[in-house]
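If you are new to this repository, start here. Below is one unmodified record pulled from the training split, so you can see the exact layout before writing a loader.
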Amino acid sequence: MTASTATGPLVLSVDVGTSAVKAGVYTTDGARVAGSSAALTATSPRRGHWTMDAGQVESALVAAVREVAAAVPARRVAAMGVSTAAPTPLVVDGEGRPLSEVCTFSDARAAGTVRQLVADGAGPGFLRRTGNRLAVATTSALTATALWDAADRPAGARFGHLASLVTHRLTGRWVMDPTHAAFTGLTDMHTSGTWSETAIADLGVPPELLPELLSSSEAAGPLTPAAAERLGLPAGIPVTVGAADTACAALGVGCVEHGRTFESVGTSGVLTICRDHPVPMEGAMNRPHAVPGRWLSHWAMSSSGGSLRWLAETGVGSTAGHDPADLAALTELAAAAPPGSDGVLFLPYLCGERSPVWDADARGAWAGLGLGTGPAHLVRSVLESTGYALRQFMELERKESGLEVTEVASVGGGSASATWSQIKADVTGRTFRRVPDGNAACRGASLLACSAAGLVDDLASAAERRSPELSTPVRPTPDAAARETYDRMFEAYLSLYPALRDVDAMLTTAAEGGPT
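And here is the target side for that same chain:
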């Protein structure tokens, strides 16, 4: 469908990630009529710190939205939805001006505080209260407190995630929704719509820093005249509080019933499972769904697609000259190597890792390199590593919840590669079905916009109706020799991180100049 053939009201949504801002315009039944994107850059000024510049985010947001708004009759845009990466903490002053950069989900500056809390025995209580393991990625409020301290604790300061900043720029209101709040460490899974006084006291976070907590599909406010002028949109349209990107993607692919599963293939890689009740787990990140009464569990890799981009950008092993955005060329190179990459194994922990090891000091590694190792082996081993991680997640999911994952919908930029999907199917022994239509998080955010504007009554049923067509199933190979190779490589993968854990910690100490 094109903008010229669409009829009725339209909704516009944005998905602000760590590598790009994507914008889309949709009809109320979920058909995309226009799309655009603007690049972002995350940087690491020092080991363990990963940030984005708030000014760059705003400029990219304006560029992406103006482009997509110009492609449609802007007067027909009835609402705006917001999706952002999470957790992405920052602090602002009383007027909403950033006092810090935006930390990405890979930022580990609060790792020392978390280690001390774990050593003090806070882990079991945290798991019972939040449903999550006590870790940097599940306690973004600790990162925000460190940012506040670095800014000399100014009066009137507030903490939020990237979504809070985006919504404030659009409406002037400083808010957060439960899908983001669950990863601050300051909520209780049994009362997810409010901040937990117990959690606030346990983590030592000043309550005056906290944003207003509202539901994902609620309107944070009308688009201000100033924001409307910058974006080329009508002033006064409702703007949603929004949700975290993977929660929005769950809406976008219709993952709203118990047991439904999909994977997001972007800079990070996430296996998401929908539940009808919260299930506390050590390995996964757990939070409320944007759909009331549903929950999501995320088995999260920090740098799956990021590892492939790193490989291309650095030119390791003569991959120089390959455009990191040219996924087809990179995966074509990988296809020249055999299953198992002739015994070359990659550990994709380039910026620490979340599931299942929760180790900010973990780092990437290759094992099995030899004089015969070439670029094809290196690229294929990186692709295979995501398959090993997914297989590990699936086995842990079965052990912890009893759920057997048999089929996975695949979304995100990396899902465009048939080769990558086939490798994951072969490694895991599961069927994958790719979602061919663009950005699932944008699609889900557009549904939240419809809800905020009163254009849909029930999020779950609307998500079911709007769920996109999936590709032909990508099934595991029938080649018994390839399956046996992957079984052996998977056992080696499970052994690699435990063997390197102490070495990684030593390297972190050496890099930071600490005592031996």
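Two things worth knowing about this chain: The chain has a mean pLDDT of 93. The longest helix spans residues 480-512.
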